[in-house]
Specification:
The complex is a heterodimer of chains A (255) and B (218).
Chain A (H helix, E strand, L loop, with lengths): L4 E10 L2 E11 L4 E5 L6 H8 L7 E6 L2 E2 L2 E4 L2 E4 L2 H8 L2 E4 L11 H11 L5 H14 L15 H13 L5 E5 L7 H17 L3 E5 L3 H7 L2 E6 L2 E6 L1 H6 L4 H8 L4
Parallel strand pairs in A: 3-10, 3-11, 8-9, 9-10
Antiparallel strand pairs in A: 1-2, 1-4, 4-5, 6-7, 11-12
Chain B lengths: L5 H37 L5 H16 L2 H11 L9 H26 L3 H9 L4 H31 L11 H12 L2 H30 L5
Helix pairs in contact in B: 1-4, 1-6, 1-7, 1-8, 2-4, 3-4, 4-6, 6-8, 7-8
The chains are: A alpha/beta (255), B mainly alpha (218).
Keywords (chain A): Amino-acid transport, ATP-binding, Cell membrane, Membrane, Nucleotide-binding, Transport
GO cellular component, one term (chain A): plasma membrane
Pfam family, one (chain A): ABC_tran
Chain lengths: 255, 218
């Protein structure tokens, strides 16, 4: 099977800090991959490169067999222009740790905006789809409310609806519950689980919720200091970690 | 010489000068706002030349006196063959001057919109223009309003300078009245009162607009 996302020798540094060291990593269509690891180990950067929020220093990222950050002009590979990036982004959606809802729009408008401006849907059609999506995340009673009046868990569910309504083939979740109060984590994880189980969307989940990762992931990759230190089947990886680094990382969650 | 009552002075000032003061304020404010948005956005352009041009405009008009700019446009430009009416010259000078200040207000508000908003737009595949129009500027606008309101009041007060280039605004009329009646205290007190009265609805209006655009967000 050909991968839907493929990182080849990808490197990224911030100043002196090498956050991704020569990463080779494939994600296959429909696969749910969980990325775990300590903060600053490179998980988030991996997702941000894919969402075109940041550019790799070197290496190639392919999405659906097309080069994400480069395009061919006159037989030569050059840095991709905005037009190419916009074409590529059609396949990818992202949910952020801090939601980034549009504070000046109601919940409904937050979800309707991109389908109307980006996909060119009619207002009626966009509204219908937004309402369906918000019902799915359990927020049908909050359509006309502004984000400031929502709890963190509700905000994140709106953000999930906003990303899903664009129908991406690949969804990235960047620590979707890390900014939430503990009692609100469950409602967001439940929504993500439901999506994971019922859709054939490819999902990349960066998370610190180990039980959640174990439950929904087809594969778990453990990041440490810019490399993938260990990866494999969730049961195997959690119950029988091979590297000392993963053993000590997991022991902190089993107390 | 007949003695005028305070009320008569008030009416006389308003009759002769209010129209010009309001005209200059209105058109100069529109010009300043338009220039402020254009040069504020241009200051953040990807193209160096555009950034440079807008930078020069801002520095020149902030760095020199409004009165001198006014004299220059009204008295010096005609020497180069560009003759403007006093009203046009007044509106142009004040609009250009306050436009330079407004552009800094616009730029700093836009840069203060959290970067996460831009990232959310990218993740939703919006174009750069869509990001600006739908997401960034509406949020920046709320932040700029108090500052733009201050600029508007400042602009209103600065219109008194157009009396120096023969425009019969409130201040010009006050000077005439003072010279003919010697009621100095009454005349200039009434002049203060009138500027204050015009300024009041402006600051109230901006407050109302602020409340309106930030409705439900806090």
């Amino acid at each position: 099977m050909t991968p839907i996302v493929s990182y080849q020798n990808v490197t990224k540094t911030y100043g002196d800090l090498e956050v991704l060291k020569d990463i080779d990593f494939n994600i296959y269509p429909g696969e749910k991959v969980a990325l775990i690891g300590p903060s600053g180990s490179g998980k988030t950067t991996l997702a941000r490169l894919l969402m075109t929020l940041e550019e790799p220093d070197s290496g190639i990222i392919e999405v659906e067999n097309k080069n994400l950050w480069q395009e061919e002009v006159g037989g030569e590979l050059v840095k991709a222009k905005e037009k190419h990036l916009r074409e590529m982004r059609k396949s990818i959606g992202m949910v952020f740790q801090h939601f980034y809802l549009f504070p000046h729009m109601t919940v409904l408008k937050n979800v309707m905006e991109a389908p109307m401006t980006v996909l060119g849907l009619s207002k009626k059609k966009a509204r219908q789809q937004a309402e369906e999506m918000l019902e799915k995340v359990g927020l049908s009673d909050k359509l006309d409310v502004y984000p400031a009046q929502l709890s963190g868990g509700q905000k994140q569910r709106v953000a999930i609806a906003r990303a899903l309504v664009m129908k991406p083939n690949i969804m990235l979740f960047d620590e979707p519950t890390s900014a939430l109060d503990p009692e609100l984590v469950g409602e967001v994880l439940d929504v993500i689980k439901e999506i994971a189980f019922e859709s054939d969307m490819t999902m990349l989940l960066i998370t610190h919720e180990m039980d959640f990762a174990k439950e929904i992931a087809d594969r778990v990759a453990f990041f440490n200091e810019g490399i993938i230190a260990e990866q494999g089947d969730p049961e195997e990886l959690f119950n029988n970690p091979k590297t000392p680094r993963l053993q000590s990382f997991l022991s902190r969650f089993n107390s | 010489m007949e003695r005028l009552t305070t009320y008569e002075i008030f009416i006389s000032l308003i009759k002769a000068g209010l129209k010009v003061t309001i005209q200059v304020t209105f058109f100069a404010a529109i010009l300043a706002l338009v220039l402020g948005f254009i040069s504020g956005l241009a200051r953040m352009s990807r193209h160096r030349t555009i950034r440079f041009i807008s930078g020069v405009y801002i520095e020149v008009f902030r760095g020199t006196s409004l009165l001198v700019q006014l004299f220059w446009i009204y008295f010096a430009l005609p020497m180069m063959g560009i003759r403007l009416s006093a009203l046009t010259a007044g509106v142009l000078a004040i609009g250009l001057n306050y436009g330079a200040y407004c552009s800094e207000v616009v730029r700093s508000a836009i840069q203060n919109v959290p970067v996460g908003q831009t990232e959310a737009c990218i993740a939703l595949n919006m174009t750069k223009t869509q990001r600006m129009v739908k997401v960034i500027i509406p949020q920046a606008f709320v932040m700029m309003l108090p500052n733009l309101g201050n600029q508007l009041i400042e602009l209103l007060k600065s219109t008194s300078l157009v009396s120096m280039i023969t425009l019969t605004d409130l201040t010009y009329q006050a000077n005439i009245l003072n010279a003919t009646t010697f009621e100095t205290t009454k005349v200039y007190t009434m002049l203060l009162v009138i500027y204050f009265i015009i300024g009041l609805p402006l600051s109230k209006g901006v407050k109302l607009l602020e409340a309106k655009v930030s409705e439900g967000r806090v």
